[in-house]
C-alpha cells in the first residue's frame, strides 16, 4: 500500500514549480514572438523585394516618357564673330563635341567660333567669280553635311565642314577646315548664266546632285561625279546638266529637295502645293501631279535624315510630315502622314537631327518646337526670343543647339532630348513608317544603317507571347487535367505511385534542352511528316475511345483479370502502334492527297509555313507545362474529402457521376489554379520560344508561323544594346509589361479561385 504513495510523491516532485512554469511561459512566449515576427518580417521582405523590382524597372523606364528641355546658357552678338554687321547668317552648324560652331554668311564668309565664349577660331572665304552675288543656299541632309552656294551668274560652289581631332599635351584639340568635294573653283550649273534663285543639293551613290530653279523659271538638274585614275592617281570631275519639265504655269518654286537615292526631286510652290519629279533617268524625267498641302502657304520644305519623309512648315505655324509612298503600280507619290502641334507664328526654319527622325522648327515670333516623326510627339514648344528664329543648328549627339534670331543674337542652349522615339502611340498603335504603304505594327529595333528608323511596337511581341502561351495551354490543359483526374480518382494507388513521380520529375528537365530538341529535331521532323502529326493528334483520342469501347465488350471473365485501376496499361500498345502507323503512312499520304508535299500544298493555298512555328512551340512548351498543371490538379482532386465521394456513391451515383457532380466542383479552385500556374509558366518561358519559334515578330495567330515573345526578345536583344539607350530602356519596359501582365493574370486568377472556393465550400 505504500508504493503508490511513493509514486505520487515522486510524481509531485517532478512537477515544475511556479517559478519554473513562469520561465517556461516566458520561453514559449519568446518563441511565439520570434515565429510571429519572423514570418511577418519574411513576408514584408518578399513584398519589399517585389516593390524594389517594380521601382527599379520604373526608374529605367521613366526617362522614356520625359519631354525635351532647352536651357539657354549663353547669348552673344554676331558682331563678336568679327563679321560685318549687315552680313546675315544663312546657315549654322555645330560639331559633335559641341565646342565649335560654324556660321555661313550671305557674302560667302565662313566663321568658326567657340560656342562657350563666342571667340572666332577660324575665318574663311568661299571662292566665287568676281562680281558674282549670292542668290540662294542649299544643304544636304545633316549626315552628309554639304553646303551649296548659288550665285546670280549660274555658278555653284559646294563645301563641307571638316573637324580634325588631335591631342597635344593630352588635351583635345579640334581644328575646323573646309573641304570642297567638287573642287575649289565654282562649277557652272546654268550655261546661260542666269541667277539660281532656288537651289537643292544631295550626295547620292551616283555622285552629287544639284537642282535649281533659275530666274527665268527653268528647272535644271546637275549630276557631278568624281573619278580617280588608278595609275596616275589624278582625279577628274565630270558633270552633266539636264533640263527637267518646267513647273505648271502660274506656279513659282520656294523650296526644293533631292533624295539620297537619286530618284526624286521635290518642289514646294507658292500655291501651297508639292510637286514630285521622278529623276531616275534625268534625261527623261517625269513630273507628277501637284499635291495640295492646305493650312496656309508653304514656307519651309526639308527632308529628314534618310530622305524618306518631308517636313512641311506653313505661314500659319503648322508643321506636318509627308512620305514618298509607292503605289500598286510601283510609282511614288507624296502623301500626308501626320501633323504636329502648331507654333504660334509662321515657320521660318526647320533643322533635322543628325541620325534620328527628329527635327526642330522655329517661327517668326521667336518660338521653337521640338518634334519626332516616328513617335508622333511634340516634345517641346518654348519661346526663346522676341524676334524671328532664323537659323538652328543641332549637334550630332543632340545635347546642345545653336540658334540665331532676327536680332542677330546667337543663343547657345543645353538640350535634354534623349528618348523621343517612344510614345504610347509608337508602342501600342499602328505607325506609318518610312518606306511602308500603310501604318503597321512592326518590331525592328536596330539595323546596320546609321540613319535607320527604329520600329518598336509592342503589339507583335505581346501577341507572340499570348500566341505561344495559348497553343501551349491548348495542348497541356486537356492532357494535364484529365491525366490528373484519372490518376487521382480512378488509378490504383500502386500505379499512381509510379505515374505521379514520373510526371513530376519531368518538371526538372532544363527548358534549354527542350528548346534544343524542338529546334533541331522536332521542327524538321514535323516539317517532313506533317500528315503524321495531324493524324496522331486526330487518331489518338479516337483510338483510345475505340479501345475502351472494345474492352467494355469483352467477356466479364476476361475483364476481371485486369485489376481495377490498371485499365490505362491496356492503352499503351494501341498508342504506340497508332503513332508508328501514322509516321509510316505519312509519305504515302502526302503523295495521295497533297501532290507529294503537304508543306508546298499549304503554300499553294496561301498558308505560310515556317519550320519553327507555333505548333512546335505548343507541343514542346505544353510538354514543359504539363508537370505543373498535372501535379497541382492531381493534388486538388486527390484532396477531395472521402466522405463526399462515399456519400455520393452510397446514394446510387456511379463513379463517373460522382466525379462530374462532386469531385470536379469541389476541386475546381485547385484545378483552376493549376491551369493559371501553367499559363504563367508559358507566358514567362524563354528558352523554348527562343530556340523553337524562329523569333519572327509577326502579327497573326497562324499556327504554322513563328512568333517572338516579350521574354525571348529581352533575352536576344538586351546583351547587344547600349546601356541607357532608348532600345535598352524599351527592353526594360517590355520586362515591366511582362511583369504587369503576369501580375494582372495572377490577380484575376486568385479572385476567381476564391469565388469558386466560396461557391463550393458548402459541399
Describe the structure.
With 763 residues, this protein is an alpha+beta fold. It is 39% helix and 27% strand. The strands form 8 sheets. Strands 6, 7, 8, 9 and 10 form a 5-stranded antiparallel sheet that branches. A hairpin with a 5-residue loop joins β24 (347-352) and β25 (358-363). α5 (493-505) crosses α11, α6 crosses α11 and α11 (614-638) packs across α13 (655-684). The mean pLDDT is 88.
List keywords for this structure.
763 residues, 5-stranded antiparallel sheet
Structural class: alpha+beta
End-to-end distance: 58 Å
* Helical residues, percent: 25-40%
Rg on CA atoms, Å: 38 Å
Main β-sheet description = 5 strands, antiparallel
In terms of DSSP E residues, the strand content is: 25-35%
Q: Whole-number average pLDDT?
A: 88
Number of helices: 16
- Tell me how many strands there are: 32
Q: Assign an overall shape.
A: elongated
Stretches where pLDDT falls below 50 for ≥5 residues?
Answer: none
Question: Care to give the gist of this entry?
Answer:
This protein is α+β, with helices and mostly antiparallel strands and 763 residues long. The strands form eight sheets. Strands 6, 7, 8, 9 and 10 form a five-stranded antiparallel beta sheet that branches. Strands 15, 16, 17, 18 and 19 form a five-stranded antiparallel beta sheet that branches. The longest helix has 44 residues, at 18-61.
